[in-house]
């Protein structure tokens, strides 16, 4: 007797880090009821245990999905990053196991850009210090060290979705926008791309970082770069904590070389709201410290919850992998009356012809076929008459290079 597509109530969805309830609602509305929900990230040990029987995992920026985690997650079908960054996931380890990773590349862009712009204004007015003094009963009614942002230079490092949106907002306030990016990017408005990071650092009144965490951005703002910044300038980091050497920043703020900073992300962040935040920046009254909430607005989080759960549901129900960050992207139609076979394999020559050969040898009629590959992995989807699906799946499993298979109906 042919096996059935996995019963949805048996599909375990592990959601960590307080992913927005909109995700839970969306999963439930689509028949996925087996949800394990955690308000914070898990310790490494607890994570290894929790992933053992999980079919889908949803995380935010704090949870690291390493080779060891993927090795322990033998049932894992796909990962959802309910955020923009995917640096916390070993994307190659996922790909090698045929696991697509999805994220929400735009849902919190605006939230970050708004916060950064507000911080630029606060820093240029010396508000962190003045506010603190007021809280202590003091009163610094003075214009000294306070400036409008109008006419000042904003240097944006990383002119992607967030950097370019910030650029537009900052220009609307009359700021002069300069940016540095490793690739040539079309300027919006009157913004200007500079050829070197050094030049940007030397002339900007406010420098804001909007790069992903990669080998090239890790510790890219260290003592040497910070000292190239203008005396009295401000640094904003709402990208990733590993982009700035935090001890070097603390030194520049203490010495007065930098007038202020606004930092949202840290090399080491607490696992959840009950854990202590430890940083050399604590206690510096010219620094705005925020607990990695650049993208944490009600609007953004609700949208992210819906967007990423929808991507996972579509992949689970129908095999569509569009917008995956590591996996061949295939957009699939619905498959009424047919069984859909998903075949994920190493991208070596001849796999598709071998699949077609074994299906033909078994006398199986193909009613739809889709293929996409990336550098390492191929994804073939075959729709067949339901009475043949088990036989077809068994035949396809034998093809050399097969990583994993699934049947959907
Ligand atoms: N604080 C938060 O809550 C929060 C929220 C959202 C995103 N983020 C972080 O912000 C990052 C940027 O987000 P995005 O949506 O704008 O990403 P994006 O991919 O659209 O843009 C990143 C830009 O950085 C550029 N870049 C890469 N390496 C560089 C380098 N070495 N020097 C200069 N430029 C470089 C890229 O070419 C690209 O233009 C994310 O990767 C994430 O880590 C943080
Ligand atoms: O990558 C992101 O989108 C941000 O860093 C936000 O991450 P968070 O969901 O953990 O706040």
From TrEMBL:
<dbReference type="InterPro" id="IPR054480">
    <property type="entry name" value="AHAS_small-like_ACT"/>
</dbReference>
<dbReference type="GO" id="GO:0006564">
    <property type="term" value="P:L-serine biosynthetic process"/>
</dbReference>
<dbReference type="InterPro" id="IPR029752">
    <property type="entry name" value="D-isomer_DH_CS1"/>
</dbReference>
<keyword id="KW-0028">Amino-acid biosynthesis</keyword>
<dbReference type="GO" id="GO:0051287">
    <property type="term" value="F:NAD binding"/>
</dbReference>
<dbReference type="InterPro" id="IPR002912">
    <property type="entry name" value="ACT_dom"/>
</dbReference>
<dbReference type="Pfam" id="PF22629">
    <property type="entry name" value="ACT_AHAS_ss"/>
</dbReference>
<keyword id="KW-0718">Serine biosynthesis</keyword>
<dbReference type="InterPro" id="IPR050418">
    <property type="entry name" value="D-iso_2-hydroxyacid_DH_PdxB"/>
</dbReference>
<dbReference type="InterPro" id="IPR045865">
    <property type="entry name" value="ACT-like_dom_sf"/>
</dbReference>
<comment type="pathway">
    <text>Amino-acid biosynthesis; L-serine biosynthesis; L-serine from 3-phospho-D-glycerate: step 1/3.</text>
</comment>
<dbReference type="InterPro" id="IPR036291">
    <property type="entry name" value="NAD(P)-bd_dom_sf"/>
</dbReference>
<dbReference type="Pfam" id="PF02826">
    <property type="entry name" value="2-Hacid_dh_C"/>
</dbReference>
<dbReference type="InterPro" id="IPR006140">
    <property type="entry name" value="D-isomer_DH_NAD-bd"/>
</dbReference>
<dbReference type="GO" id="GO:0047545">
    <property type="term" value="F:(S)-2-hydroxyglutarate dehydrogenase activity"/>
</dbReference>
<feature type="domain" description="ACT">
    <location>
        <begin position="340"/>
        <end position="409"/>
    </location>
</feature>
<dbReference type="GO" id="GO:0004617">
    <property type="term" value="F:phosphoglycerate dehydrogenase activity"/>
</dbReference>
<keyword id="KW-0560">Oxidoreductase</keyword>
<comment type="similarity">
    <text>Belongs to the D-isomer specific 2-hydroxyacid dehydrogenase family.</text>
</comment>
<comment type="function">
    <text>Catalyzes the reversible oxidation of 3-phospho-D-glycerate to 3-phosphonooxypyruvate, the first step of the phosphorylated L-serine biosynthesis pathway. Also catalyzes the reversible oxidation of 2-hydroxyglutarate to 2-oxoglutarate.</text>
</comment>
<keyword id="KW-0520">NAD</keyword>
<protein>
    <recommendedName>
        <fullName>D-3-phosphoglycerate dehydrogenase</fullName>
        <ecNumber>1.1.1.399</ecNumber>
        <ecNumber>1.1.1.95</ecNumber>
    </recommendedName>
</protein>
<dbReference type="InterPro" id="IPR006139">
    <property type="entry name" value="D-isomer_2_OHA_DH_cat_dom"/>
</dbReference>
<dbReference type="Pfam" id="PF00389">
    <property type="entry name" value="2-Hacid_dh"/>
</dbReference>
């Amino acid at each position: 007797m042919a096996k059935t597509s996995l019963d949805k109530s048996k599909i375990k969805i592990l959601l960590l880090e307080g992913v927005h309830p909109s995700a839970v609602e969306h999963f439930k509305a689509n028949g996925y009821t087996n949800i394990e929900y955690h308000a914070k990230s898990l310790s490494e040990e607890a994570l290894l245990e929790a992933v053992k029987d999980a079919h889908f995992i949803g995380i935010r920026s704090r949870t690291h999905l390493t080779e060891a985690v993927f090795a322990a997650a033998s049932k894992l079908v796909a990962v959802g990053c309910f955020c923009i960054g995917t640096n916390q996931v070993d994307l190659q380890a996922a790909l090698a196991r045929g696991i697509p990773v999805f994220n929400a590349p735009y849902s919190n862009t605006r939230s970050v850009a708004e916060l950064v712009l507000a911080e630029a204004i606060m820093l240029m007015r010396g508000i962190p210090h003045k506010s603190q003094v007021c809280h202590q009963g003091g009163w610094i009614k003075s214009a000294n060290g306070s400036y409008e942002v109008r006419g000042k230079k904003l240097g944006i490092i990383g002119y992607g979705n967030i950097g370019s949106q910030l650029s537009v907002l900052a220009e609307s306030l009359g700021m002069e926008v300069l940016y540095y990016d490793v690739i040539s990017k079309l300027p919006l408005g009157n913004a200007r791309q500079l050829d070197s990071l050094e030049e940007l650092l030397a002339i900007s009144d406010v420098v804001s970082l909007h790069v992903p965490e990669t080998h090239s951005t890790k510790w890219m703002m260290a003592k040497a770069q910070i000292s190239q910044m203008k005396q009295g300038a401000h640094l904003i980091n709402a990208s990733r904590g590993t982009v700035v050497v935090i001890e070097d920043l603390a030194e520049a703020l203490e010495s007065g070389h930098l007038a202020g900073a606004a930092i949202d992300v840290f090399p080491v962040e607490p696992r959840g709201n009950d854990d202590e935040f430890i940083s050399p920046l604590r206690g510096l009254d010219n620094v705005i410290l925020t607990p990695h909430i650049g993208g944490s607005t009600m609007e953004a989080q609700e949208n992210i919850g819906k967007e990423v759960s929808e991507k996972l549901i579509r992949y689970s129900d129908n095999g569509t992998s569009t917008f995956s960050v590591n996996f061949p992207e295939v957009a699939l139609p619905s498959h009424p009356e047919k069984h859909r076979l998903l075949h994920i394999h190493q991208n070596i020559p001849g796999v598709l012809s071998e699949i077609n050969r074994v299906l033909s040898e078994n006398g199986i009629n193909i009613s739809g076929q889709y293929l996409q590959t990336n550098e390492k992995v191929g994804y073939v989807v075959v729709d067949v008459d339901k009475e043949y699906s088990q036989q077809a799946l068994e035949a396809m499993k034998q093809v050399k290079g097969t990583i994993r298979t699934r049947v959907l109906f």
